[in-house]
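FAQ

Q: What does a record look like?
A: Structure on top, sequence underneath. For example:
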């Protein structure tokens, strides 16, 4: 059975058994939090548990490296919507140790892209359209610095209300231990 069919078969039973009841909540985050974290699979269940967050407590946004790559990209857009439409008032930017984006080599990633059948012509076309693919794929050397940069990008965004508190944290993906990089209360 393929992955989609297995998911759909499980989902049918999930709905029939009314297993969804335990996850019922509202659209508004109960704790008025936004959590920007990395997409690392080790954090899927660990991060909410390590933060004592339950279903419905926060808006979770995930991307590679928990990084703000563009001030008007989809990550920032999601944060702005969470603030203005769902009354979030604090943001946690949470990176993690041993992140795959640490020292990501854009050249090696581009090589994998072409190995999977994407032509050099397509990549050249992207560059010609003003997209610096290597910069777009670039990782970071320091998780701590990346977190600080993302916190600053959020705080200094022209659509960000001045009373929004933005914290920067790092989680250890093996233990769930949280370290504070930026305490947003100190900057408020």
């Amino acid at each position: 059975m393929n992955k989609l069919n297995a998911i759909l078969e499980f989902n049918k039973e999930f709905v029939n058994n009314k297993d969804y009841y335990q996850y019922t909540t509202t659209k508004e985050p109960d704790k008025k939090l936004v959590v920007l974290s990395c997409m690392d699979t080790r954090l899927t269940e660990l991060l909410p548990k390590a933060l004592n967050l339950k279903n419905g407590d926060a808006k979770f946004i995930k991307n590679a490296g928990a990084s703000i790559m563009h001030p008007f990209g989809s990550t920032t857009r999601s944060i702005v919507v969470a603030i203005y439409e769902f009354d979030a008032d604090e943001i946690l930017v949470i990176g993690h140790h041993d992140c795959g984006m640490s020292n990501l080599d854009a050249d090696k990633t581009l090589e994998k892209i072409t190995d999977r059948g994407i032509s050099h012509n397509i990549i050249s076309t992207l560059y010609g359209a003003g997209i610096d693919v290597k910069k777009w794929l670039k990782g970071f050397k320091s998780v701590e610095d990346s977190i600080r940069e993302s916190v600053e990008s959020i705080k200094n965004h022209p659509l960000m209300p001045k009373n929004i508190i933005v914290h920067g944290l790092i989680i250890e993906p093996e233990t769930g231990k949280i370290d504070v990089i930026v305490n947003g209360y100190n900057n408020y």
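Q: Is there anything notable about this one?
A: Helices lie at 3-16, 43-50, 74-86, 106-115, 120-128, 133-137, 143-155.
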